[in-house]
Each structure stands twice: as C-alpha cells, then as structure tokens.
C-alpha cells in the first residue's frame, strides 16, 4: 500500500485506499504535541525512506482506530487536502485495525470498547467477522503499472484467518474460550535466536552441530529468551526442559539412593585448604596452554 493503491470490496461496495491520504492526514496533524490527534505517528511511520519495515508495532499504530476515526472526521468536514475519497482509506484502516484486534485478544473480556480484542468465545463475534474479513481479503487487489495483483501477504492473511476458524471449531466443544494472542511463533523465533547467537557464522547447522548448540542454552538456562533485534515481542515464558529436569531421576527409591550416594561422597571428601587460588589457577592455565602446544 505504501507504493500502490489498494482496491477492495466491503459490504458489496468497491472502494480504494491510498497511502497518500495517510501522508496528508499526518501533515495536517502536525503542530504542537499537546494538540495532536495521532500523537503516536512519527516520520518513521509515514515516509517510505524512513520506514522501519521490521517493526510490526508501527504498522499497528498506523492502522489503528484513532487514525481511522480522525481521518473520517477530517474528511467529512473538508479539512486540508482530505476529501470524501479518503473515506475509503479510513474504512480500510478501520478494517485492518479490527483484523489485528481479532487475532490479538489476550483477556477474557473486551476492554476500551474493542469488542474483538478479547478471547474467542461461543457468543463472541469473531467467527462472523473472520468470515467477512476473508471475503474482503479475497477481493483485495493492488494497483500496479502492470495491472492489478494480489501479493502473497494477502493470501497469507486468508490462510491465517481460516486457520483460526478451524482451531476454534475444534476446541469450542471442550474449551470455554481461546486467546488468539497465545498462538504465535515468537517463542520459536526467540529459541532459534539463541541457537544462532551460539553458532554465530554457522547459519546452516547440521544435526550434529545443532545438538551441540541446543545443549549450551539448556545448560545456561537460556540466559536471554528474547532474540535481540528480532521481529517479535519479548517472551517471558519458561523453557520446556532445563538441565535440572534432564538430570533428575524418577522414583522415590532412585532419589533416595542418589541422595545417599551424594551424602557419602561428600562425607568422604577431604577438602584442601587453598590459601592462594590465584597462583594455582595461573599454573593450571599455563600448564593447559603448554599441553596444547
């Protein structure tokens, strides 16, 4: 949409959205920060040469209810360059805001009037909206110099919404609600970020080298579960397995024997009184270096 206008059908009405309308609204809203309507928007949200393409948050802030409602009010009252044609752009922004809300619900009840930004329930409007949204995406075409085309991102949105519909149909008989925000790839992305940070230049590891890289984060208990500079939010969840779980032994008898063996080993161990650990550590380091030579 930044480069090409987008055509879509909503409620059987053909509409066209343009990024230029968003630029015009941003210029019209410039001024004192205390009086800004879309105060979250910056140059990095609007202008092509300054866009941060990997920041999903920026896209959500542009395609938001505030931007949509501000554009609608401005267009209806004829302020600035925004005419009635920008109402189509406002409708498109409102539609994308609802799509984001419908797949990011993390609470049982809706807050701040966002009826779709909550858990999917039997009496919620998610299923009806997803059915409508799929039809809108199917009608969506981008106007290019060679004609009209549908990029892969549009088809991926259709697959995503169909996937959510399928999941809820499978779960609604056994579960009261589903939080769509919990279904994302951020934990997997952060995990592979830990693997890549250990392998550094080894971007295509074999199974053997992957096992070695996998053991290191487990022993270190994943010192950072968030991959720096990654296109995902910080994930505070815990890992499935840690070194402690791998070393633990099931069964009361086995645990008892292990504790007895550990106690006996500790009781029979004679600890040396090390007066100067620095000297001993230095000697060990030098000896190890000479041995490698």
Automatic annotation (TrEMBL):
Superkingdom to which the source organism belongs: Eukaryota
Residue span(s) of domain Transposable element P transposase-like RNase H C-terminal: 183-215
InterPro entries: TNP-like_GBD (IPR048366), TNP-like_RNaseH_C (IPR048367)
Organism encoding this protein: Exocentrus adspersus
Domain (Transposable element P transposase-like GTP-binding insertion): residue spans on this chain: 10-110
Record Pfam families: TNP-like_GBD, TNP-like_RNaseH_C
Protein name: Uncharacterized protein
């Amino acid at each position: 949409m930044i480069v090409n206008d987008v055509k879509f059908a909503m409620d059987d009405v053909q509409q066209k959205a343009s990024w230029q309308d968003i630029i015009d609204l941003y210029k019209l809203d410039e001024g004192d920060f205390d009086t800004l309507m879309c105060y979250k928007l910056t140059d990095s949200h609007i202008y092509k040469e300054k866009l941060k393409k990997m920041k999903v948050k920026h896209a959500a802030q542009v395609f938001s209810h505030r931007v949509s409602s501000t554009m609608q009010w401005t267009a209806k009252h004829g302020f600035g360059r925004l005419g009635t044609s920008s109402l189509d752009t406002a409708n498109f922004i409102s539609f994308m805001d609802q799509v984001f809300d419908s797949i990011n619900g993390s609470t049982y009840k809706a807050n701040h009037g966002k009826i779709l930004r909550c858990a999917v329930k039997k009496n919620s409007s998610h299923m009806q909206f997803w059915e409508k949204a799929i039809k809108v995406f199917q009608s969506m075409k981008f106007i290019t110099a060679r004609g009209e085309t549908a990029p892969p991102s549009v088809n991926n949105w259709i697959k995503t919404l169909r996937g959510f519909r399928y999941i809820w149909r499978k779960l609604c008989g056994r579960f009261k609600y589903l939080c769509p925000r919990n279904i994302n790839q951020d934990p997997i992305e952060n995990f592979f970020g830990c693997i890549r940070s250990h392998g550094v230049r080894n971007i295509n590891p074999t199974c053997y080298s992957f096992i070695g890289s996998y053991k290191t984060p487990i022993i270190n208990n994943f010192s950072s579960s968030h991959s720096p500079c990654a296109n995902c939010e910080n994930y505070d969840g815990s890992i499935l397995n840690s070194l402690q779980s791998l070393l633990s032994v099931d069964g009361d008898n086995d645990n008892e024997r292990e504790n007895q063996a550990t106690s006996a080993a500790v009781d029979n161990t004679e600890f040396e009184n090390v007066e100067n650990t620095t000297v001993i550590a230095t000697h060990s380091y030098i000896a190890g270096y000479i041995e490698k030579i």
